[in-house]
Amino acid sequence: MAAHLKKRVYEEFSKVVQQQPHEEVPAKKLRLTKPSKSAALHIDLCKATNPTDALQYLLSFARKPVEAESVEGVVRILLEHYYKEVDNSVRLKIASLLGLLSKTPGFSPDCIVDDVISTLSNDKSNQVLAQLLDTLLVIGTQLPENTAVTQRLIEVACKHLNSTYFGVRNKCLQLLGCLGTVDKPLTKESEAGTSIAPLRDVQNLISDYFGDQDPRVRTASIKAMLQLHGRGMKLQQTAYSQACKLLNDDYEQVRSAAVQMVWVLSQLYPESIVPIPSSNEEIRLIDDSFGKICHMVSDGSWMVRVQAAKLLGSMQQVSPHFLEQTLDKKLMSDLRRKRTAHERAKELYASGEFSSGRKWADDAPKEKVDTSGVNLIDSGACGAFVHGLEDEMYEVRIAAVEALCSLAQSSPSFAEKCLDFLVDMFNDEIEEVRLQSIHALRQISTHITLREDQLDTVLAVLEDSSRDIREALHELLCYTNVSTKECIQLALLELLKNLTKYPTDRNSVWKCLKFLGARHPTLVLPSVPELLSTHPYFDTPEPDMDDPAYIAVLVLVFNAAKSCPTMPALFSDHTFRHYAYLRDSLSHLVPHLRLPGRKQTAVLGSELSEVGSGSLESAQQFLQESLVRVSTLQNLDSPGAQDLLDFTIRDLKRLGELQTELAGSADFCATYLHCQLLLMKALQEKLWNMAVPLCLKQNAMASTAAQQILEETYKLEFLYSGLETRQVATIHNVRLQAKALQLILTARTKRGVEPLIGLCEKFLQEVELFQRLFMSELPHFQDSFVEKLLELMPRLVACKPLDLVKILQTTLRQSRFIHLKLPEQIHRASATIIEPTGESDNPLRFTSGLVVALDIDATLEHVQDPQTTVKVQVLYPDGQSHIIHPKPGDFRTPGPGRVRLITQVYLSHSAWTEPCQIEVRLLLAYSSSSSRLAAPKPAWNESTEGLPTSESSVEGTINLSKPVKVFIMPKPARR
Amino acid sequence: MPDIKVTPLGAGQDVGRSCILVSVGGKNIMLDCGMHMGYNDDRRFPDFSYITQNGRLTDFLDCVIISHFHLDHCGALPYMSEMVGYDGPIYMTHPTKAICPILLEDFRKITVDKKGETNFFTSQMIKDCMKKVVPLNLHQTVQVDDELEIKAYYAGHVLGAAMVLIKVGSESVVYTGDYNMTPDRHLGAAWIDKCRPDILISESTYATTIRDSKRCRERDFLKKVHETIERGGKVLIPVFALGRAQELCILLETFWYRMNLKAPIYFSTGLTEKANHYYKLFITWTNQKIRKTFVQRNMFEFKHIKAFDRSYADNPGPMVVFATPGMLHAGQSLQIFKKWAGNEKNMVIMPGYCVQGTVGHKILNGQKKLEMEGRATLEVKLQVEYMSFSAHADAKGIMQLIRMAEPRNMLLVHGEAKKMEFLKDKIEQEFSISCYMPANGETTTVTTNPSVPVDISLNLLKREMALGGPLPDPKKPRTMHGTLIMKDSSLRLVSPEQALKELGLSEHQLRFTCRVHLQDPHSDSDTLSRIYSHLKSVLKGYAVQHLPDGTVMVESIVLKVSSSGEDPNLKVILLSWSYQVNVEVILQKRPLYPSIGVTGVTDRHWRYT
């Protein structure tokens, strides 16, 4: 057999060599000149004289990919060597290679199952056995449908379960976990001749190893159980008590896995009843497990603590009684009951005596504690979060904060209770924890109302020097409910302080006040005269309109006035003037107000608001209708088609401006139609009937059109998110048309055939690529350009370039316009540079040759994967342009779909005589190979040495934001 | 039964003068060697005459272990090693070794130079003593001699504080020293693995206290300081030089950094500066945050905190000053206090406990007028705040440590008797282990059940494995056949054959015989064949053979028939079997000859053949 195979391999090898000279297609040539892997391997292995050499060959072999068709040959060669080999390490490597090879896509590993199993029964080395089982595991996971193989593998696993080597047991358990089924007992075991009693299901079998002597095996058994669960098998409740026992294991990995196990079971059987040991009471399983996991929050190993704290967050069904225990900690001093600082603060607040000076013995213990009643060891959930939040490792603290947050979201009463603890976390020593707790508080803020003393603590953080913290806090304040008028004043005061200390926070503070005002109109009302410093009898001086602090106050008041009609009566004259100004300049912060006697603005405002509130459906309908109307255009040449397109484009653009929800879709359609329009114009009849030399002007027009279409298609593809394959295919179709047009134009203008050959080939490759990528979409492309091309493909490949051009020309003109079908949601990526504002007249001076750092602050919306795609472009007046890649850390995500870029770019230039403006803008980089539909990653290993980077990939950039001008002045260096 | 003896010389039902003698497995260890702050006479040091009346201690102690650098844990060390006399090894962690001599020297200066005491240890003695110190690393197992090994665990409390595991053979003792189970701004929490010691000797300072979260206190502290600074006031924080001072410094330093504050923070010079230097060096002993960020910036290299000069106290504008000593009874802190007391904008924050009679105690109790020396009165207008920062484990912390270590017995020291009583009850109730709280000089004896390691021959193990059955379960005992050979001090378990061979003995086989008398008129051979045929019919599943030499074999049992001399009808049947359990089963379950009365079964004769 082996000899025969070897012969086959040699044949393959020699055949390849013979064919080589005849081959013409360059793409295929590359692959075929490489000698077959199996043959090379065989030769190498035969050459190896000692195990070390063989191992080296195998190692270097493993670094190269193997094609699916030659895998089987390679496997046979490897197995042959395996039988001959005496050295354990080489056998081990071969076994692992077998596993790797069976992962090759396109290769079905069921043919080697028998061989591997037979080697398994012959091998003596435990390590090799473990590796072989691992290989079987790989094979088993590759063939999940093949029940016969699965059954056999399970038998094998059962057989080896009582091995003395932990690795073998581990792998067997893993196999059982990956392949076993719970519902079916392992009936075939007795036939397989194992010593294990028949009629036991996989779960029972695995749970036997919960008590194994080796902690690694215990871990593996729990993991296998979890794997079963992960595959959708329903675990039995019997495992619960076993898993609970393992929570006290000596080894952290066992405990960690056991915590997970307990959690899984608690999610499966939340309502079943379990007895409490040493008493005859019973509780729900979810409560019991909650208590147990809470207990693990004070485990000795921090890994386990993190795990436990994380899992607590997802146990939402737990009874509120247990949940509230987690925050409970009975204080005691010298056996007297003491109140916590939280309780004291609350009492102080309730008694109306706020912020009294702290006295010594203020916290003096009160009543005597009954000695027998004190329970020092926490039973169950007691104080779990108190411990978790005070933990030494910040990982645990973060996990605890997250868990607290998610539990509080589902239970308002718990949210109320955990408020104090979260507020305390604002003072953590690690910034990440502070940030996380601010975010957590924001998420639960719908449930809570902050007390004055709590707000005080929260606001203290506003002075933090970290911008992230401050902005997170502003965000939090946007959603916060406060209880009294004093709270509003306090918040305003602190925010203004913040504004003077950190003027860059301007926008964020204003926005914060906008929400604060809109949320609490009744609380703002009584303090309006004070805020605006108006006086019933005297006129007060008019405040400076450019003062950010004054604007902040106005934003608060105006937003409150929106839902409080009595408020404008309190405004003085200049306030109305300022309102008109701010309504215009900061329209996103100042809402429309119905002001008495201010008709002008009111009319304008109401008109806008009507449009704004105009139903979304009608706009959607309009969009659909205009698309349908356009789609009736069968022929591009029909009279009036151009006009129709023109109008539709105009309509869509306007619609996008009016209806922000539909802006993405409308823009997308408009751009697409614009492409069509350009194409239509370029293909106009008379242009093509004229002799070439006579229509130079038209040629130029057509080529710019083609160029423009190309650009637009890239924008269409990469700037919009939410596209489906079908739309992408449509865009590609248009792109192909543009390319065809370019090709035709080149053919017309250039003399000679030579330059055409390359272009034609490239074009054909692209058509092929299209076919490969969008196979499934082709049925939707009836009568389209692409479809026609693909029909003609055999002819195209064969014919000469000039013929090809002719065919293209006719197809292009006959092809139908494709109706664009809109997906659910399309968003257009956009960016705005907030800073630099471009208003400064003071040039940024620096010594030439050195660098100056320019702070850039921008918001990005709907940009996918901004870390890799967004770049900053700096354009100097001399035409030099630099593209800067911001660090991944510079991107922050304050909300879904929104990204904030805060970065620095370094500028440098040689000396100028006078200051000049540079342009800074954001770019979106794309490459067609990184398109969402790019071909899957090559073969089974990471090396891509042999793979040419896809030649059709086009790298480019799209402008993402408006350019901002910055005045700079590089001075000559002083000597 | 071997036992472990623990005798506290100090710190037994008391705080201060920690010194505990432990004898385990024939080794004597002294844990800590501290002094008592409350006494100025001989009682200030532990009574070393308990160990030996006269002469040096070297012969009686195998090693001395110091848990941390506080004087109540190491203050008597030079006295013991140099004046009483001890030359053996003294173990302490690196930071303790570095800081301990500074404190000892300071202590010596106060007692000798200020109070003018004689017969006290000298600087040279401190140096000589420190030469005997062997430094320890965390989690490093140090072999003191062949049998005794010690291992240090992190204890929190102060920089370099350690818990020690002392192990002789399979007997072990853990001594915690002082420890803290909740992390603070500069130190982490105590941690120990599940070492299951025979005795856990734990401090119990806060045996009856459960503390509130540290965060509230920190936040309050920072808020107070911040508010005072904002309204332009000055803040005085009287501290003791080491430990809490560093924690508060870090707290303020990070707060200043976070909030971008500019007001100066001063630190009174001297001892503290030197100690700060060591804090900078021993970064690995601090908490996670400091350890992780020290590459960018060592947290103890304070940016905002500068050395204090006397003249700064009169500078205008807000400032924060840390000054020693902590109870405002003398020194720099009192001087500054006098200067600032008159202004209500200012504030003093007392971070610790104040002894009665000190200025600190008075102002904490709300006294508004203080009498100073020279009949001057000082009006106290500034705000007085109290903020407790303590680094001992509270009752919950102690319980948590017990849960971590899982000891078999518990022993409480370093606490007040009444409070210990409460904790003792709790421990006994919740862990059901016995708990002791000896007074000074009282010896507690705990019997241990040490496991004796025995070598087993591989062949025997393999044979046992081959017998089948499930793999050995480490948690369950299992019986097996073998011979235990005790030779010199080694114990070995070998197979019987090998034992015989090694000892040069020949094998003896044990056979049991039994005579059964029965009346039977037939001849001997007939009787035998009758018995044979009967047995054949009754014992279907067994191999029954009639051998030519006039015997019947049932498996390995031999039957012989002979007639007795006096009565030819009385036949004596001789049964003989080797030592096997199944023989008896056959005999009991199946009476040989139901038709004939069996007489001799009950009086079986046992003898060697």
Automatic annotation (TrEMBL), chain A:
Gene for this chain: INTS4
InterPro entries linked: ARM-like (IPR011989), ARM-type_fold (IPR016024), INTS4_8HBD (IPR056235), INTS4_C (IPR057412)
Bias kind Polar residues: ranges: 941-954
Domain of life: Eukaryota
GO cellular component term of the entry, any: cytoplasm
Primary localization: cytoplasm
Family as reported in the entry's similarity comment: Belongs to the Integrator subunit 4 family.
Entry protein name: Integrator complex subunit 4
GO biological process, any: snRNA processing
Region of interest (Disordered), ranges: 935-954
Keywords in alphabetical order: Cytoplasm, Nucleus, Repeat
INTS4 8 helical bundle domain mapped to chain residues: 620-823
Domain Integrator complex subunit 4/Protein SIEL C-terminal Ig-like: 832-972
Localization, UniProt: Cytoplasm; Nucleus
Pfam family, one: INTS4_C
From TrEMBL, chain B:
Keyword check for Metal-binding: yes
Record GO terms (molecular function): hydrolase activity; metal ion binding; RNA endonuclease activity
Gene3D superfamilies in the cross-refs: 3.40.50.10890, Ribonuclease Z/Hydroxyacylglutathione hydrolase-like
SMART domains assigned: Beta-Casp, Lactamase_B
InterPro entries: Beta_Casp, INTS11-like_MBL-fold, IntS11_C, MBL, Metallo-B-lactamas, RibonucZ/Hydroxyglut_hydro, RMMBL
Residue span(s) of domain Beta-Casp: 245-363
Keyword list, A-Z: Cytoplasm, Hydrolase, Metal-binding, Nucleus, Zinc
PANTHER family per the UniProt record, alphabetical: CLEAVAGE AND POLYADENYLATION SPECIFICITY FACTOR FAMILY MEMBER, INTEGRATOR COMPLEX SUBUNIT 11
Family statement drawn from the similarity comment of this UniProt entry: Belongs to the metallo-beta-lactamase superfamily. RNA-metabolizing metallo-beta-lactamase-like family. INTS11 subfamily.
Stated name of the protein: Integrator complex subunit 11
Taxonomic source organism: Pygocentrus nattereri (Red-bellied piranha)
Lineage: Eukaryota, Metazoa, Chordata, Craniata, Vertebrata
